[in-house]
Amino acid sequence: MSLKTLGQFIIEKQADFPYAKGELSRLLRDIGIAAKVVNRAVNKAGLADMLGENGSANIQGEVQQKLDVFADEQFIEALSRGGECCYIASEEHEDGIDLSTLVTSKYGQYIVCVDPLDGSSNIDLNVSVGTIFSIYRRKKESGVIESQEVLQYGREQVAAGYVIYGSSTMLVYTTGKGVNGFTLDPSIGEFCLSHPDMRIPKQGKTYSVNEGNYRKFPQYIKDYIKYCQEEDASTSRPYTSRYIGSMVADIHRTLIIGGVFLYPESSAYPQGKLRLLYECNPMAFIIEQAGGRAISNTCRVLDIRPTHLHQRVPIVIGSADMVGKVEKYLEKVDILTATES
Ligand code: P6P
Questions:
Q1: Measured in whole angstroms, how far is the alpha carbon of residue 198 from the centre of its chain?
Q2: Residues 55-107: tens digit of each pLDDT
Q3: Atom in ligand 1 nearest the alpha carbon of residue 250
Q4: Please, which pLDDT band fits residue 167 given cuts at 50, 70 and 90?
Q5: Residue 240, ligand 1, Cβ within 6 A
Q6: CATH of the domain at 179
Q7: pLDDT band for position 284 (50/70/90)?
Q8: Does residue 246 have its Cβ closer than 6 Å to ligand 1?
Q9: What count of other Cβ atoms lies within 10 Å of the Cβ of residue 147?
Q10: Dihedral in degrees, nearest 10, Cα atoms 75, 81, 83, 84
Q11: Ligand 1 pocket, residue 273 CB under 6 Å
């Protein structure tokens, strides 16, 4: 395969993005720049006193790692300078960052929701971590950003993607015309097309859930986990259990080989743990574009009405047939509940 950089690919696919020429190119260029800087820091963290806690907490009350803060700063700086982005919703900030008052971003038409460094509690363990981003077009041409411009349905995303800082660093994104993956070639500092037209298998052999929470799960999730563990050669069961604890890494594996990832509601997290705007929606857009599914109880993730920036939702995402199987267990509960009531 001849070398094709992310920039060349976006220009070649410009027709896929129905807005003014070059806008998406510049947005993804800005995200790519920040990702390269974060990648360098993640790879050198152990040598550059970038491991460990920052001594602060984010809006979620989660202890911030030094690299969380560093990554957040890089994406804000790159998007602020790029001029295409007018507003950033970041996991690391309670309120959104309104760039529309900056001269450079006054005419920016895009809103970016970002988890700058997802899974960062794993960094000191040298486990893959990632950045997750979601891109919306603002509803008004200019002026003060209003909440209904930020809290758009996931189905209104114009682009979404993630960067995984792993054994190699990859950027995977969609603009609604399929999913493509780019691997960073450090020798030239470019993301190069390595996984064209990514598709998720309809069925897989892996289920991914934090089974340490088993007792706290609703019954239908417990029943599904038991189903995964039962012997049945005709359905390749028992399935393999794989859980990294870094959403980007778990979803990337699921996209490549198939499977299902679950972060359900529980007594510990009644609304689920993962955030709708900058974790579940972008991953749902990507997986659906690759031929998979993403649900939150009985609702399609992309159809959930957002109510606030850091809203948490339960999620079951991955191979279409496996998500459908979980859905069957959920439907049984609904039927039982209905007959009991
Ligand atoms: P738990 C990382 O902290 C994260 O936000 C996701 O990347 C990951 O999927 C999840 O939380 C892991 O949560 O409760 O299983 O440790």
A1: 16
A2: 676 666 666 668 889 999 999 999 999 999 999 999 999 999 999 888 888 88
A3: 9
A4: confident
A5: no
A6: 3.30.540.10
A7: very high
A8: yes
A9: 11
A10: -20
A11: yes
pLDDT at 332: 82
Domain boundary among 169, 195, 221: 195
- Looking at ligand 1, which atom is closest to the CA of residue 119? 2
Check pocket membership of 235 for ligand 1, CB cut-off 6 A.
Answer: no
Distance 248 CA to ligand 1 centre (A): 10
Nearest alpha-carbon partner for 115 in 279, 336, 320: 279
Are residues 225 and 168 part of one domain? no
Range of the domain at 211: 206-340
Same domain, 268 and 237: yes
Instruction: State the angle between helix axes of 66-82 and 23-44 in degrees (0 to 180), rounded to the nearest 10.
Output: 160
247 CB near ligand 1 (under 6 Å): yes
Rounded to an integer, what distance in angstroms lies between the CA atom of residue 85 and that of residue 69?
20
Is the CB of 121 inside a 6 Å radius of any atom of ligand 1? yes
Checking if the pLDDT of 286 tops 90, the result is: yes
CA 336 to ligand 1 centroid distance, Å: 31
Asked if residue 272 has its Cβ within 6 Å of ligand 1, the reply is: no
Cα–ligand 1 centroid distance for 297 (angstroms): 19
Query: Tokens 């997750």 — which residue?
Result: 132
Which pLDDT band, with edges at 50, 70 and 90, does 2 fall under?
confident
